[in-house]
Amino acid sequence: MTFQAFQNRVCTSVTVNDDEMLEQTESFIARINITHPHSHISLGVSSVEITIVNDDEATVGLENTTYTVMENELKLYVCVVVHGPLIGCPIFFPFELLFVPTLATAFQGSDYRVRDPTLWFGACAMRQCLTVDIIDNNLIEDAETFTLTLKHPPRGSTDDIVLDPTVATVTIEDEDAAIVTFDRTEYSVQETSGSLAICARVVSPAVSCPVATPFSLTYSFPMELP
């Protein structure tokens, strides 16, 4: 920059690149020096900090909002992806997200387990997955569900990262099986007894009481043996 005679203000232009990447606030220092010293001219404020405020935003959301897993698969991966800006590195700083499970008909600890609900994204990461352990309890059950909600952690959230979609519904399908059979292959009763108890039982090689949901049977007597 050059001051002409009688000129009291000069400016220079600094080009700011809009890189379409979600970044944290950046700053740099500009300094001035007198290249041709003058005995009557000295420096006052000789450095200034310039801050570049980010105006980009990115959307981070669940890859799928519904998941179905068989109980004997033992693992489920719930994945989160980064969307736009559509360049190679949309988010230029690390961040973390939090999964919050909600009880429905499946219970954490007995039907599934989320060991670490925190999902960590490094700078430029595009996809990360949460591991959910599915517990195979050898019980015959109806399909069970629970939800996982994606949230910003209490500390470290940023308004520049929009979460959408945020809720995944997980259905655990049961693969266990059992046999319902009469207690005996034949019964004998005295005609004068007045009644007879005919019993059925559930048989499973895995556990002694394998059916965790109620069900009904009907009895019929299609024919009378001679």
TrEMBL record:
Domain of life: Eukaryota
Keywords: Calcium, Ion transport, Repeat, Signal, Transport
Record Gene3D superfamilies: 2.60.40.2030
GO cellular component: membrane
Listed GO biological process terms: cell communication; metal ion transport
Domain (Calx-beta): residue spans on this chain: 48-151
Protein name according to UniProt: Calx-beta domain-containing protein
Lineage: Eukaryota, Metazoa, Porifera, Demospongiae, Heteroscleromorpha
